[in-house]
Amino acid sequence: MRTDVAIIGAGPAGLLLAHLLAADGIASVVVETRTKEYVAARIRAGILESASVDLLRAAGLGAGVDAGGDQHRGIYLQWPSQRHHLDFVDLAGRSVWVYGQTQLQADLVAASEAAGRAVYYGTSGTALHDLDTGHPFVTFADSAGTPQRVDAAAVAGCDGSFGPSRSALPADQTSTWERVYPYSWLGILADVAPSTDELIYAWHPDGFAMHSMRSATVSRLYLQVPNGTDTADWPDDRIWAALAARLGHGQDGWTLTPGPVTDKSVLPMRSFVQSPMRHGRLFLAGDAAHTVPPTGAKGLNLAIADVALLAPALGRLVRKNDAALADAYSDTALRRVWRCEHFSWWMTTMLHISGDPFDAQLQLSQLRWVTSSTAGAAGLAENYAGLPIGF
Ligand code: FAD
Ligand code: DHB
Description:
The protein is of the alpha+beta class. The protein has helices spanning 12-23, 36-41, 50-58, 63-68, 88-92, 101-114, 236-247, 299-320, 324-351, 357-372, 374-385, and strands at 5-8, 28-31, 47-49, 70-72, 74-79, 82-87, 96-98, 118-120, 124-129, 137-141, 147-151, 154-157, 175-190, 200-202, 209-213, 219-226, 261-275, 278-279, 282-284, 290-291.
């Protein structure tokens, strides 16, 4: 096959890139190891920044968010006996939307299928070739096991943290930064109306807890747990009891309503950045280049922001052989990546119990400051609600 851009990975970054390129008249072929059903069912992010929603709307992909998304003005930050609302609209002039990654993925798949775009699911053996030349190509075996080759002007590595694109950059020309955290999240999805109108992020001596949601009838909740935690040690009753304690059930009349748990998983946490995000004709986007710990809801939004920069860069490279935007892509994208890396690390280390009592006092001091100082609150709001694309 010959196309303009070979895209590896059909997650949000890969499918959105294919969509934005098509709007600019650029053809692509997407290669994905998992099945369409597997990718669609993965329960992951839940919050879209305002710039992400603007981009989806401008790309003709906003109908789902507009019909099924829930616009939130801000979040609650709390610690024992205290709950404070931060209003992002008042503080930073922007809101966020609750819209699950599963819903966004479904919108992207629907748009891709309606346009008849080439997406190969269930592939194996993806390999990248001749990235240093103007004629790179990708090989793989399709779902029937038949060998395939895609020749393209550029390759977009949108294959997440475990795909082959990241390691296709020469090690001696690449820098990486990593931080592994000494705790994980136990996440549940529950068929029960949320007990809160907006998300609650809770500091508690037993560990962090968060109350999020997916819809008026589905709640999403998280608990800080030690690394290596087995979900078998957390029956539903134990989870709801821990959530009630950490989220402040009974505090000022607030109650947490438990319900049937439909999904339960443990998520380790990591910060990771690889630089540059480009080598020759290979361009990395989304989790393929960077990972953030989930506190602060940046992972999906960063993937969207990368692709918003990459699509016009590839458009100019492919159509006009003009490499100006492509050459600037990595540096431009990394400015926002590092801002979000810092914000995610900061939210994580402000809210999770490390076991060190000195850390705990610093965390409480920081929480008191961001909830009582307009300057402190505005800094959190500006970062959480999201910076403009191209920041
Ligand atoms: P991905 O969604 O990972 O997509 C990459 C795709 O590439 C995958 O479909 C994968 O199967 C495919 N692929 C891999 N290897 C190959 C190969 N060899 N050939 C072809 N295809 C390949 N972010 C938040 O903002 N909030 C959250 O609450 C949150 N929760 C998360 C929970 C979990 C368990 C995980 C893993 C991530 C979470 N994230 C969250 C992060 C967010 O989901 C990611 O940042 C987002 O999915 C990034 O999109 P992406 O398209 O870059 O990568
Ligand atoms: C969700 C996840 C996050 O990491 C976050 O900061 C907010 C919401 C969620 O899954 O809904």
